[in-house]
C-alpha cells in the first residue's frame, strides 16, 4: 500500500506532461500554418489598419474582381489609418483552382515585367475628422502584365516588413476559349421550389479553339453564387459528354438558397439623413449615423427592389471621393423577440470582405430587445444583409469551416427562388505547363435566356 500513492502521482505527472505536450504541439502546428501552402488563401484578409479595401474591375466598383486575361484591368484602393506614412507595395501569387499556391510556377512564369509595384496614388485625406492616407493603383499597367490565366492573390505589404502581408485579396483572370451556356431556375426538388435556385450548364468546345480532351479529371467547373466562395460548388460531375459539348445538371444538395434583395444604407451625405437613417450626429471627433431598426424578413413575400448585389460604392456630396470622404460610426440594430442562443448574427456583404468578422458580429441588448452593432464606414452607399452562424464557429473563417458550416441567410432575410441573384461559372483545365488554366467564364441571373 505505501508504494501505491507515489506510483499514482508519477502516473498523473506523466499524463499531465503528455497533455501539455499535445496542447503545445497543436498550438505550434496551428500558428505555423501558411496560407497558400498548408491552407487555402482566405476569402479576403485585411489588416485592421487598412479600411475601405476594394478590389474591382476598373471603372466598375460594384463588381467582383473577375476580368479577362487580355485587356482586363483591376483597381485596388484602401485607406491606411497608420499614424506615419508607410511605403506600401503589392505583389501577386498564382493559385490552383482551390486557392493554394500553384506548386510548379514561379512569379516569372506568370508575370511579365516587375513582380512587385509601388502604389500609383498615395494621398493624405483633406478636411476630415478621421485622418488617413489613401492608396490606389491599377494593374496590369505599363510596368507589368500577366501571361497566364487562373486564380490569383494580390498581397499588400510594407516594404520594411515584406514577410508580413497587410492584405490578401482574391481575383480571377480568364480566357474565352470555350462557350458557356447557363440557365438559372427554381429548384427541381419539390420541397425547395419556393426557396432555392439551380444552375444548369453546357460547355461548348472545339478543336479549333480549345479541345476538352479529359472532361473528368483535368476539367474543374466551379459555380459561385454572387462571387461567394464560401458556398462554391466544386467537383461537378458531367451529366453528358457528347462530341463537343459537356453538360452539367446540379440539383439537390448542389442548389443554392435564393436569398432576398439586399438591404441598404446611404451615407453619402452628413448634412441630411437619407432614407432609412434616423439621425446623423456630429459628436466632436467622430460622426455618428443611427439607422432605422431593421426587422426580420424571413416570412415576408419577396419585394424585388434594385440593389448592387451586396457591394458598396465610396461617394460623398461635397469633396473628392477618395480623400474627402469622412468616416462615420454607423449604428445598426435588428429587432428580435429573444436572444438566439448558440447562434451569432453578422452584418454581411462586401463591407465585411464577404466573410464573418468579429467587428461585424452583433450583440444582444436585453433592454432594447435588439441585436446591435456599429461599423466604422467611409461615406458611400452600402448594401448589406444579416446572416447567422453557430457560435461554436466564431472566428473560423477558413474555407474548410465555411464549407462545412455555411451561414444561414433564410433565418432573417428569407429565401426566394425568384430573387435576382447573380451566378458565376468558372471553368478550369489542367494545362500541360502545370497550372489550372481558366478557359471560360460566364455569369447569369434567374430568368435570363440561356
Topology:
Blueprint lengths: L3 H28 L12 E3 L3 E8 L8 E3 L5 E7 L7 E8 L11 H4 E3 L2 E3 L2 E4 L8 E7 L4 E3 L3 E9 L2 E14 L4 E8 L9 E9 L14 E7 L2 E6 L6 E3 L2 E4 L7 E2 L5 E4 L10 E6 L4 E5 L20 E3 L6 H4 L2 E9 L7 E6 L14 E3 L4 E9 L1 E11 L8 H6 L5 H4 L9 E9 L3 E10 L6
Parallel strand pairs: 3-12, 22-24
Antiparallel strand pairs: 1-12, 2-4, 4-9, 5-7, 5-11, 6-10, 8-9, 11-12, 13-14, 14-18, 14-19, 15-16, 15-29, 17-18, 20-28, 21-22, 23-28, 24-27, 25-28, 26-27, 29-30
Explain what the structure shows.
- The protein has 5 helices and 30 strands.
- It has 450 residues and is mainly beta.
- The protein folds into 3 domains: 131 residues, Immunoglobulins (Immunoglobulin-like); 106 residues, Immunoglobulins (Immunoglobulin-like, Sandwich), CATH 2.60.40; 138 residues, no CATH class.
- A hairpin with a 2-residue loop joins strand 17 and strand 18.
- The protein starts with a helix and ends in a 6-residue tail after the last strand.
- The N terminus is likely disordered.
